[in-house]
Amino acid sequence: MNDLSIDAARLLERIRTLGAIGRDESGRLTRLAASDTEKVGRDQFVSWLDEAGLEVAVDRIGNILGIWRPDGVGDRQPLMLGSHIDTVIDAGIYDGCYGVLAALEVIQTLKAQGFASSRPVVVVAFTNEEGVRYAPDMMGSLVYAGGLDLDAALATLGTDGSVLGDELRRIGYAGAQEPGFFKPHAYIELHIEQGPVLEREGIPVGAVQNLQGISWQMVTIEGDANHAGTTPISMRRDAGHAAARVITFLRDRAKGSNTPTVATVGCIDFEPNAINVIPSRARFTVDLRDPDEDRLKEEEAALAAFLDHLAAEEQVGISVERLARFEPVTFDRRIVELVEKAARERGLACRRMTSGAGHDAQMIARIAPSAMIFVPSIGGISHNPKEHTTDEDLVAGANVLLDVVRELARKDCL
Amino acid sequence: MNDLSIDAARLLERIRTLGAIGRDESGRLTRLAASDTEKVGRDQFVSWLDEAGLEVAVDRIGNILGIWRPDGVGDRQPLMLGSHIDTVIDAGIYDGCYGVLAALEVIQTLKAQGFASSRPVVVVAFTNEEGVRYAPDMMGSLVYAGGLDLDAALATLGTDGSVLGDELRRIGYAGAQEPGFFKPHAYIELHIEQGPVLEREGIPVGAVQNLQGISWQMVTIEGDANHAGTTPISMRRDAGHAAARVITFLRDRAKGSNTPTVATVGCIDFEPNAINVIPSRARFTVDLRDPDEDRLKEEEAALAAFLDHLAAEEQVGISVERLARFEPVTFDRRIVELVEKAARERGLACRRMTSGAGHDAQMIARIAPSAMIFVPSIGGISHNPKEHTTDEDLVAGANVLLDVVRELARKDCL
């Protein structure tokens, strides 16, 4: 299949062009969903769709689809390729954008070659994958898959007080199509790994076979604010110390197990947060992830049991609020094997892997066979201006996507 | 000595009157040093000094002295009694004020009785003991004792951008006297305990024999911000987890030792403080206290050794900034014994104890034999509107102070 390759220069140029849109005076890149800067990015993407001769469709949640309908595909379900072009605050240029622009590049290459696809091929940029401005994240794909009511999503209040539906109308991306109007036959998402595994192992292609389940909780511990100098250790109800015990418990448990479970405490605050006052209250987040639902439930149960034990031992009050919960997703084995085959035929090392992050693919997997392709992230860094993948890896990943699409485009595939 | 007692009603009434000054619309009490509300409190105190017929002196750092010079005392050094009348934010009414108003009450009682003191007796309200608006705390007494340069203290920039010297002038309390102009023969400070010990043991009087040394440090741990989902536990440099290990280390060490050492982590923050990002940075305060200087040094060294070990084990960078360091203070044994004797003769249970908090007495101890008397704090609560001491205990403490002053006022005492 190595007779055909994507236009590397065009792909890299588009990634850089899109990555230049939404920079502030100090050069920080931020294109929050449905913002003014994201509108400029959307307009740029649509102009590329036009340039490639694709049919442009926008649905009511603002997902942008670029549709290639080769002759004779009739009303067959499309192959869908894509990701998102919104970003976090102070972002890198690859997260999401790479997958969208590589998908466009693949379609444009196939179209230019007169490739005989048995199905339409669609590139999609889903709205609000990052969830920074409007919660939850992966919103556009979730609505597309029917997992979130459209009107509820449009009514979402942003962190800046805006309403998503109003903002989409304002920037001209409240489309006419019902989300999900074009049900995919299969969905493939190419993405940077956002983790260190591929780079550390020197492997350019990851065939993503599943995606971790995610459990987000907010834990609040209530103790007594007392004077740091006058309260003997034995008389303390120290919420901060109790919080520290939870953090070390989670780490010790994750480290001691032979599983891929990860546990992270990323946010914390103490009250009153004074140097000479024992914390009366500690609030912190717990992010638990595991590709196996039973094991994720086990981890949640182990945390709950530890909190009960801690409340009694430290004489503190503990309450837990669930912030988010996604079950693990298993991707389509056949597509994963196609990714491995394509990499092999290109002479690229490949490994099966688990996605630690959430992606639009996990939502679309509800309605179509799906999988993902990862390329290495240098240093595992993402959501950060230092996010980087080498040009060579970017091009190699896009060519693997090209080959997988060519296989899937055959009449009887899947 | 029980022939004479203070005027309980007058003392309690004054405590309540002063405690009503500086309340905001919602009833919160705040009289920060040299603020408009503190000026009203100072004016009230001075009017009571006038009413008691005392000579009023204000020094250049704003300390207010009410001086009683009985006939025949000549130029003998005074007995000095006092504390402070500035407060923290959302304060209780007893911290500091009780000691100042009880001292005034004692002097007024002795004066009215024509008590033959061999020395002047002075009540003092030191400026900025709390240190909330201007650092360091205990500033007025520190300057009075010659431990901080007057001009440097007056140039102190407040948390609100004000300059202490300007504010003292503005509120009319930039006095003419050089701080320390009246060197005390002895100093006694009556204060609420601000801890739970006396109440829990049912003892109304504490004879404070020493004051803990205080070591304040800010610890900063630097790791790597990486994605919480994609970074295997073994590849993490998690600054938040390392911080939690320090907190549990300090607690385990304090709990495991048979010493009065206390260790508190009161402030913490993580960066970037995002639920799905491993903390790249954790900053937290460590408050270590011990009445024994050697032991305090040992605790500091143990923490430093643990941080070294942690930096290597967790592959994180750790830096430590010293915020404050006060050596323990041992009070004058003779005065402590006079407190015990006075309590005994009043039929009050008394125990020797260590002050866990800092007080003006620790500064004046540099220039004169000093000691403190504690009364119980209900629930050990202080720096809080719930701060409370029963009227009975307040009156008992003031009478013990009265008796101690009568002993010290004898010609050959100390």
From TrEMBL, chains A, B:
Domain spans labelled Peptidase M20 dimerisation = 212-313
* Necessary cofactors: Zn(2+)
What highest taxon heads this organism's lineage? Answer: Bacteria
Q: Which residues bind Zn(2+) 2?
A: D95, E130, H383
Q: Which Gene3D superfamilies does this UniProt record tie to the protein?
A: 3.30.70.360, Zn peptidases
Keyword Transferase recorded: no
- Annotated residues that bind Zn(2+) 1 are located at H84, D95, H191
Q: Single GO molecular-function term?
A: hydrolase activity, acting on carbon-nitrogen (but not peptide) bonds, in linear amidines
How does the cofactor attach, per the note?
Binds 2 Zn(2+) ions per subunit.
- Could you tell me the keywords of this UniProt record? Hydrolase, Metal-binding, Zinc
What the record says about family reads: Belongs to the peptidase M20 family.
Q: What is this protein called?
A: Zn-dependent hydrolase
- Please tell me the species this chain comes from: Sinorhizobium saheli
Q: What is the lineage of its organism?
A: Bacteria, Pseudomonadati, Pseudomonadota, Alphaproteobacteria, Hyphomicrobiales
